[in-house]
């Protein structure tokens, strides 16, 4: 019976809960009570960033294949995940500056701005800045460069509109997607038409 239990797929084994719960390693002496919250909040952000990247990539595939309903479903999920990410700040705000300062010194120069996945999300959303990944390891820089060399979610949406018969300026449709998008009045007019006639 014991052997069967150990080999059976369980909630704990499927989700690797035992491994997950070992990933919180406070550095402060004691450790400081609030450091655990700080770690878990930021690890949770990283998990959500991973899911957002996964969802954005699928949303792009859905848009580029013209699958309206599936794209809307995924974009709705992305919106909900982003709401959860923003709401997590409320939990972090329960920590006072003094409580944070009690362990901040142990974090050295580390910062949330060093999050590779956050930079990937920015790139998928259209940020094009060669310096944005300069502080990251070379393999991550290469991964972000690959993202910025292709379509952003915005570019995928513009492709979707073109396939639905909307006429967009040639310099927008055929532009170099590794360069940041610049606002275009003709595109805004098309978006207004879509909003009014093709919701």
Description:
- The chain has helices spanning 2-7, 11-14, 17-20, 33-64, 68-92, 97-104, 116-125, 138-149, 153-163, 170-173, 185-197.
- With 199 residues, the protein is mostly helical.
- The protein has one domain (31-197): Methane Monooxygenase Hydroxylase, Chain G, domain 1, CATH 1.20.58.
- Helix 4 runs parallel beside helix 7 (116-125), helix 4 (33-64) runs parallel beside helix 9 and helix 7 packs parallel to helix 8 (138-149).
- The N and C termini lie far apart (58 Å).
- The model has no long low-confidence stretch (mean pLDDT 94).
| Rg for CA atoms | 22 Å
Largest sheet: none
Sequence of secondary-structure elements: HHHHHHHHHHH
The name of the CATH topology is Methane Monooxygenase Hydroxylase, Chain G, domain 1
The CATH class is identified as: Mainly Alpha
DSSP summary: helix tally: 11
Quaternary structure classification:
single chain
- Class based on secondary structure composition and strand pairing: mainly alpha
Low-confidence stretches: none
Helix share, percent: 55-70%
Q: What is the number of independent domains?
A: 1
Percentage of residues in DSSP E strands: under 5%
Number of strands: 0
Distance between the termini: 58 Å
The appropriate CATH architecture is Up-down Bundle
Gross morphology is: globular
